[in-house]
Amino acid sequence: MTVPSIDDFLAELDFDDAGLIPAIAQQWDTGQVLMMAWMNSDSVRMTLESGRATYWSRSRGELWRKGDTSGHVQSVRSVSRDCDSDALLLQVDQIGPACHTGRRSCFDTQTVQVDLQGEAQ
Questions:
Q1: What's the rounded Cα separation, in Å, for the pair 71 and 64?
Q2: Which CATH class, in words, describes the domain spanning 6-94?
Q3: How far from 80 is each of 60, 67, 68, 85, CA to CA, in Å?
């Protein structure tokens, strides 16, 4: 398997009409899902070139490199695209909490269990 260049990887991605693609950050060694954020082509390129997760803030309308203000850095081990090329999976080494609430994961809040009949318990 050959590794694509950054330009080739970017050309394969299916960004939405706003030029964004959802990205899931997952702890590389445990598989824990940490967070979901948005990326544009610049943030994907910066992530691949620097090895530090960089996202696009829709609320601020700017790039943000995870950990620059909080110290909670995401060192990127790999970036994969899904089968439709419209979502990314970042395997990261998370330093400190990933969530702005101070939790390890943004998915550490309420969980709804679903039984085999598809009903919430």
A1: 13
A2: alpha beta
A3: 26, 21, 24, 9
